[in-house]
Structure formats: structure tokens, C-alpha cells
Write a structure and sequence with these properties.
Length: 144
């Protein structure tokens, strides 16, 4: 299979604390979405890179799990994933130290132990998981 490339862009004007920026994606899903210091390090409005990483990781993992289930002839009624991204100060900079995935799933035709094993495989194999060097955890809530 040929390689796949996706792109996004960011614009920034001003200093780190008083500047403002926006993020856009080539697909147009994000179009000049605002971001800034307060959205990233406080409770200001706008998005931030960590939130976008969380969205990307939740989406990637959930789709990877759907493919992994299908490989065993299973189809999910529902897979709902939340990704909580933790960023901590390290020296004078910051580092993403953890991504906590939380999954609620309804998958008929399997048992909880098998499901958890398949979910762990999907977590390990998802391209975003493989990209991140943070500690990535997974909590599952199996509903049948």
C-alpha cells in the first residue's frame, strides 16, 4: 500500500503568553480554530495541541479496535472512547507524560477476557499509540 499523508497547519502571532493563533486542517474540519496560552495552560476558550492529540488517539484506537474485532468476525454495537492527555512540566519545558484511554463497549458474541485482549492489541498497534512515547493506558468497560 502506498503511504498516506495528511496535513494541518498552525498560525501564531505575538509572544508565547500574549500571542494568539489558529489551527487548520487540510480537510477543512478545523478551519482557523483558535488556540492560545490560556486555552492550553488554563481554562480559556479555544483548542490546544493536547486536546487534538487526545481526539486523534481516541479516534485512531477506536477504529483500530473495530478492525481488530472484524478480523475475528465480531462487530461492535458501540465503541465509545475518551482519551485524557496529561502534560507535565519538565525542567523549563513541558512533556506529554500520559494518555489514559477509557473505553465503553458493546460487542455481542465475545466474552470480557477475549475483548480486553483484542482491545490491548488495538491499543498497541494503533498508529497514534505507536507514535507517542508517553505512557499509554487503557481502561475498558465491557457491556456485553
Amino acid at each position: 500500500m502506498a503511504s498516506i499523508m495528511r496535513s494541518a497547519s498552525a498560525h501564531w502571532a505575538g509572544g508565547g503568553k500574549d500571542g494568539t493563533g489558529h489551527i487548520s486542517s487540510a480537510s477543512g474540519v478545523l478551519k482557523e480554530a483558535p488556540y492560545g496560552f490560556n486555552a492550553r495552560f488554563g481554562d480559556g476558550s479555544g483548542t490546544n495541541p493536547e486536546e487534538l492529540i487526545g481526539a486523534a488517539h481516541a479516534g485512531c484506537f477506536t477504529m483500530a479496535l473495530a478492525f481488530r474485532l472484524a478480523k475475528d468476525g465480531l462487530a461492535a454495537e458501540s465503541l465509545d472512547t475518551t482519551a485524557k492527555v496529561t502534560m507535565e512540566q519538565e525542567g523549563e519545558g513541558f512533556r506529554i507524560t500520559r494518555v489514559a484511554l477509557s473505553l465503553r463497549a458493546r460487542v455481542p458474541g465475545t466474552d470480557e477476557a477475549t475483548f480486553k485482549a483484542l482491545a490491548e492489541e488495538a491499543k498497541a498497534g494503533c498508529p497514534v499509540s505507536r507514535l507517542l512515547k508517553a505512557d499509554i493506558t487503557l481502561e475498558t468497560q465491557f457491556e456485553g
